[in-house]
Amino acid sequence: MTADGEVFTPVRVLAERVRTRRLSPVALAETFLDRLERLGPRYNAVVTVTRARALEQARRAEGEIAAGRYRGPLHGIPYGAKDLLATSGGIPTTWGAAPFRNRVFDYDAAVIRRLEAAGAVLCAKLAMVELAGGMGYRQPNAAFTGPGVNPWSPDAWSGGSSSGSGSAVAAGLVPFAIGSETWGSILSPAGNCGVSGLRPTYGRVSRHGAMALCWTLDKLGPLALTADDCGLVLEAIAGRDPADPTTADRAYRYDGEAGAARSFRFGVLRGVTDGCEDAVRENFERSLRTLEGLGTVEEVSLPELPYDDITRTILFAEAASAFEDLIESGGIAGLTAPEDRYTAYARDAILAKDYVKALRLRGVMAREVDRVLARLDALVAPGRASVAAMLEGEFRSAIRGTARDVMGAVGNGAGLPAVAVPNGFGARGLPTSLQFMGRAWEENTMLAAAAAYQSVTDWHTRHPGEQ
Amino acid sequence: MSEAEAVGVEVETMLELVRERYGDRLDADQLASVRTSIEAIVQAARALRAVRLTNADEPGQPFSAYRADP
After folding, report:
1. Residue A467 lies in a domain
2. Angle at A414 (CA atoms; ends B56, A447), nearest 5 degrees
3. What is the pLDDT of residues A367-393, one digit of tens each?
4. What's the structural domain count of chain A?
5. How close A215 gets to chain B, by Cα (Å)?
6. B44 touching A, CB under 8 A?
């Protein structure tokens, strides 16, 4: 019973084969461990292959399923975790940063524990931008593992900061991965690599054991081949956790049938494609025509507020505090990107009064966007304004203020869920993406809309060759 | 004082603070880059300050009281 034909197969399909014992979890783990070890270095996608832990979990899954104790759709399914999630058993947790490359925790992050309880098989800790990009990086080469290489082109970036999570799914190194997003770090690598990514509502998934970049902005979520797979993973990792008091006491059940035979109301923010590359705009307009077959599309607007400034101020202030020791000790000098070694010093210029003003304006922002979203199922927009940046040189970034990203500023600032799915190809043959963003706690609606889009398109079924 | 002059004064004040704290770690090019970052921070802060709020507009992330069980 081998698993060579299971690469680029959605979790839902793999799960059925595992459940019915047509596919061995051990063989499945061996297949992906081999790919991680053989192809991971090509994409700078992997920090640590967790072979021993994976095979132990896979053997346990195989035994349990043989004994009739099937846990659910992630039982026996391999995955990778962004290397900011704490793992026990001597597996390093590096945060992508050279100063922490040998650091080991003696506990598992809540998400790792929940995936283990679901029977998933941890095969790798995946590469990421150092400190999740919180120190002001301006170039892809900002991790001690090197720049994340895009499986669609060896000259292109896989995106940040969940670089390895995006490239590992795109290259068929794992069926799904866990990433984190403070502002763009799930949707960006998902879009750059042509895979599906889900940013859950803030408070949906416990952050316990995850590196803190910004306490009020950080979210953890899945990247996978399909929106449907993202839902399966979210159900396993969501839920209240006393160790993370920001988690909400709201049960979450993924409803994979939620999109069947229903009509959606989509909104498009006026001017949302301003500044987008031509191919991104063209692909988005084509996507809108597809969405018109799934419901209605109308133009909407938000009141004028300094959305980017609100979220950026919160991000910079909290990141400066989260890494106060590393910054003030001068430890940032050990980071890889030269600009990460000093840019954070500027954040001493943020006044407490301005940070609190940003928090107050966040409340206004959250109410205003909810007012718009209340009569819609989702706002839709390009996932990114451009295709993946080149590996060399500086990229444009809304976080640094060299690009605009109202959807990202509002979505992350207000803690709203969003799903990104591939919707075509643009410059240099690189993927473009479409995002669906909705009201708080409406992940099922976002996933249903994205799944409906994927049911009538085939962009998510296209995969890069082995470059 | 014009808006541009006011921004410049604020930037220089903040830059002096950073130079006082970390100047021994920064060369001229790095200090210039930090200055650019401070300009962006100051511009963002001024955009936030320009929006008027009422006394009732609380932060979007309220603190909650803590009590260990039981």
Report:
1. no
2. 145
3. 999 999 999 999 999 999 999 999 998
4. 1
5. 10
6. yes
Based on the residue annotation, tell me whether A161 is a catalytic residue of this protein. yes
What pLDDT is stored for residue A467 in this prediction? 47
Active-site annotation holder among A24, A153, A161, A188 = A161
Query: Is A408 a domain residue?
Result: yes
Q: Is A82 a catalytic residue?
A: yes
Per the domain annotation, does A402 fall within a domain?
Answer: yes
Q: Which residues of A touch B41 (CB under 8 A)?
A: 313, 316, 346-347, 349-350
CA angle A407, A412, A418 (to 5 degrees): 65
Is A316 within the bounds of a domain?
yes
Among A125, A229, A211, residue whose Cα is nearest residue A175? A229
Give tens-digit pLDDT for A99-111.
Answer: 999 999 999 999 9
Domain parsing of chain B, residue ranges: 3-49
Query: Which residue ranges of chain A lie beneath pLDDT 70?
Result: 1-4, 466-467
A361: left (phi over 0), alpha (psi -120 to 50) or beta: alpha
Q: Say whether pTM exceeds 0.95.
A: yes
User: What was the pLDDT predicted at A3?
Assistant: 60
Q: Residue A392 belongs to a domain with what CATH number?
A: 3.90.1300.10
CA distance A348 to chain B (A): 7
**Burial classification of residue A162, based on how many CB atoms lie within 10 Å of its CB (0-12 exposed, 13-18 middle, 19 or more buried):** buried
Best of A309, A324, A402 to mutate (most B CBs within 10 Å, chain B): A309
Cβ contact (<8 Å) for B38 and A245?
A: no
Facing residue for A310 by CB, picked from B37, B43, B48: B48
